[in-house]
Design goal:
Blueprint (H helix, E strand, L loop, with lengths): L17 H20 L6 H8 L3 H29 L1 H18 L6 H11 L5 H10 L7 H32 L4 H8 L1 H17 L8 H6 L17 H6 L2 H31 L4 H13 L4 H40 L4 H25 L8 H20 L9 H15 L10 H24 L2
InterPro entries: MFS, MFS_dom, MFS_trans_sf, NO3_transporter
Pfam families: MFS_1
Main location: membrane
């Protein structure tokens, strides 16, 4: 895929260029998707009592919320290659808003499980976010752009933990019962998702020079086969044959999969283990996600900085370091029995979780540019596969949440070794080093012209 005129700078307050509009709309859309995806999580204590759910059933709903996303992420990456991120995101937001608003009709475990399963498809939004920023930004800033857009999107996990209990409390103050309150509260994220989907369609475009449909028609996209057709149908097979893709699949399972798991259990964990109110537990749980304001961006920034002197090898080394520190911090967090210490260690753990995520997608754009969507889809699916695997630790009646978190930390440390499997040929290393230098020189030249 030949994408021209990528941005070599991130101008946060510029909304006039297609690159920056894609940047801002992609992170905001992902943020809102988190709002819908995990909106029910901070209310699970109420839902559990209303529907009479056991711990195993709660665990099954957690698994359901992330399981379907594995499959949808695999598909959505190839779909981005075919129809472009603009249409893919618009349809996902509009259609995804329907099960979010409909979960209120659940009246037993089975219907609630099906609703959470359907809502889980929204999680594929991450792949589109990373795809859109990857084709909009040059090598010298693509790690930062990917990490920041995803990080500010993941921030939705934190704001959801804080806002949903407040929305629920507001409804109770209006005289609504708890049984009806959690159901009405879920209508709010559904409406916001629908409106965001319309906005994405109206105000963004697929690439710096236009939409994929028009670029293909004029031969500017450079991804057609010899018969003139779209070759995206073969990109998934290309990605599947690359062992580096599956190594990153495991790596992302160990960072984003862990974040999804914490988003699902944090509020109920603090509510039960530290005997807090629902609002207080949600507020503390929200701090984990709020670290995305800067933490995931830091992962991308360090990835770009490591690449300045050490090329693609530097990006991989930084990924290994971040993931290893995450695993160690998670094991420490699992052993905390004092609330203040638990919160402090959780923030350190959160920092490394999100930096590891940013570091992962600082590497992804360089694995295979022709199959970018497929690679991003498979690696992104790894995050949800990790969440599904972790979910089994927290549905067992024989394991406490503390034990589950400790075993999860050990798994993350082992998974960090997979980062070392990711290697690049000398030719690719040299090509990307030159592309980095050219983009950096263009950025420096543009900065000088503005003085």
């Amino acid at each position: 895929m030949n994408i021209r005129h990528k941005a070599n700078r991130i101008r946060l307050f510029n909304f006039s260029t297609p690159q920056m509009r894609a940047f801002h709309f992609s992170w905001f859309a992902f943020h809102i998707c988190f709002f819908g995806w995990f909106g029910i999580a901070p209310l699970m204590a109420v839902v559990r009592d209303d529907l009479g759910l056991t711990k195993t059933q709660v665990g099954n709903t957690i698994i359901a919320s992330v399981a379907i996303t594995v499959l949808v992420r695999l598909v959505i990456g190839v779909l981005c290659d075919r129809i472009g991120p603009r249409l893919a995101y618009s349809w996902l937001l509009v259609l995804g808003s329907l099960p979010v608003m409909s979960i209120g009709f659940a009246n037993n475990f089975e219907t609630f499980l099906l609703a959470r399963l359907a809502i889980g498809a929204i999680g594929a939004s991450f792949v589109i976010t990373q795809y859109h920023t990857s084709i909009m930004f040059a090598p010298n800033v693509v790690g930062t752009a990917n990490a920041t857009s995803a990080g500010w999107g993941n921030l939705g996990g934190g704001t959801t933990q804080i806002l949903m209990p407040l929305i629920f409390s507001g409804l109770l103050m209006l005289g609504v019962s708890e049984t009806l309150g959690w159901r009405l509260a879920m209508v709010v994220p559904g409406i916001v998702m629908f409106v965001t989907g319309i906005g994405y369609y109206l105000f963004t475009q697929d690439a710096p020079d236009g939409n994929f449909k028009e670029l293909r028609a004029t031969g500017q996209l450079g991804d057609s086969d010899e018969n003139g057709g779209n070759s995206s149908s073969s990109t998934f097979a290309i990605a599947c044959r690359d062992i580096r893709v599956w190594a990153l699949f495991v790596v992302y399972a160990a960072c984003f999969g862990v974040e999804l798991t914490i988003n699902n259990i944090a509020a109920i964990y603090y509510f039960d283990y530290f005997d807090l109110s629902l609002a207080t537990a949600g507020l503390i749980a929200g701090l984990f996600g709020l670290m995305n304001i800067f933490a995931r961006t830091m992962g991308g920034v360090f990835s770009d900085l490591f690449a300045r002197n050490n090329g693609l090898k530097g990006r991989v080394r930084w990924l290994f370091i971040a993931l290893l520190c995450e695993g160690v911090a998670l094991m420490f967090f699992s052993q905390m029995h004092v609330l203040a210490l638990a919160i402090g260690i959780m923030l350190v753990f959160s920092l490394f979780v999100q930096m590891a995520e940013g570091a992962t997608f600082g590497v992804v754009p360089f694995i295979n540019k022709r199959a970018l969507g497929a690679v991003a889809g498979i690696v992104g699916a790894g995050g949800n596969a990790g969440a599904v695997a972790a979910g089994f630790l927290f549905r067992s009646e024989s394991l406490t949440y503390q034990q589950g978190l400790f075993y999860l930390g050990i798994a993350v440390v082992i998974a960090s070794l997979c980062a070392l499997v990711v290697r690049f040929s000398p030719a690719v290393e040299a090509e990307e080093a030159e592309a980095y230098r050219e983009a950096a020189m263009e950025q420096d030249g543009a900065s000088l012209s503005l003085r």
